[in-house]
Specification:
This protein has about 150 residues and is mostly helical. Helix content is about 85%, strand content about 0%.
């Protein structure tokens, strides 16, 4: 597993640096949607993985999802709260910590009750519903998906 995490970090750090350039070109919300699609593809691949080598081939998707979500997600949220400096990063940090706490609890319980496949399948379903929500809001408001920063 150390190799998976090392490879993820090797891909993730340059991707975070590159994300600043991509936000100006593609818009932060578009990159958040791309991160969600990459994470959905990664989790779907993990659900059906039969070997560790499959996981190694899926690592770039996970690294891309984390890099884009951490940088473009914060940039998008900050663009929504321009008048309140520091508010976006504080809320973003707290939501991440809350998610890690709840995720650890859910993952621990799923391991205890042997529900790991259900947990991964649930994550894929949650991401797909998130993408549907983003696109429904986009078309309902008739605004472009990219938020110019």
């Amino acid at each position: 597993m150390g190799g998976v995490f090392s490879l993820t970090a090797l891909i993730e750090v340059p991707a975070i640096i590159l994300c600043g350039y991509l936000i100006k070109r593609a818009g932060s919300l578009n990159l958040v949607v791309l991160a969600s699609v990459a994470l959905c593809a990664y989790l779907t691949g993990v659900v059906f993985a039969q070997s560790y080598m499959t996981i190694y081939f899926l690592v770039p998707l996970a690294a891309l999802a984390v890099a884009l979500n951490s940088s473009a997600g914060l940039a998008y949220y900050q663009s929504l709260t321009d008048s309140r400096l520091g508010y976006a990063s504080t809320v973003y940090n707290n939501v991440i910590r809350f998610g890690m706490g709840v995720g650890s609890l859910v993952f621990g319980l799923s391991g205890y009750f042997d529900l790991v496949f259900s947990l991964k399948f649930g994550a894929v379903c949650a991401l797909l519903s998130f993408l549907l929500l983003i696109f429904s809001v986009r078309y309902k408001r008739q605004t472009p998906l990219a938020v110019e920063n």
